[in-house]
What we know:
Elements: H1 4-12, E1 30-32, E2 37-47, E3 59-69, E4 75-92, E5 99-118, E6 123-125, E7 128-141, E8 155-168, E9 173-187, H2 191-194, E10 212-228
Antiparallel strand pairs: 1-6, 2-3, 2-10, 3-4, 4-5, 5-7, 7-8, 8-9, 9-10
Amino acid sequence: MKAFPFAAAVLVLVPPAKAQVGHNPATSPYRDMRYGQFVTLTTGKMFGSGGKLGLGPHSGQVVILRHDFLADRPLSVSLGAGWGRVDRFVADLAAVPRRLDGPLQHNLWFGEGTTQLNLTGGKTWHNAAPYLSLSLGLAMSETIPSDSSRYRFGTKFFLAPAIGVRYFVSRRLFVKVEARSTFWNLSYPITFRDDPDGPFGPAGPLLTGELKEWSPAPVLHAGLGFAFRRPFF
Length: 233
């Protein structure tokens, strides 16, 4: 969550879009967006904790490609896909005493749909267009052969609230900065809690609570976007 104060400060400085009463259009800070679709490619850093046992996704690099549609002036929807090369720990059952090894890198793929509230509507304010959004999607991780603990990230549903801003350097080209936090539900084998000879041993960090938890993974990313009409003109 540490990434959110940075982006929140941007929104504090940008007032909501209002009717431009009393503004000369030539000198108004507001400009209409001429195009209703946007493609954005961003790259950034994930700052996950891996959950209470550290077995979920940790920090790593993330790349996201999104296609936005301006469904209504204050509202837009988008489809996106992403890939991450992130760290995680594994339980080493062959070690005496048993322990967590890592971090090890693994691949993470995800697809998502996003609803976005554009705080300046269909306009920019001094070329900036701040927004709030909520993404829902599915993430899938590759299996790590050295993890013999029966823990698998598998395919996980996630939700990701975000705050960000687009800055238009021209009518079509813009720079985007976004802070989001991805929440996914981690599930652990029952042996983590009920088996004294489980993956961590009787003296290790046995799981004493629920076998499932929602774990956040903040992401801060930035990139370039292009605005267009159909088909790309």
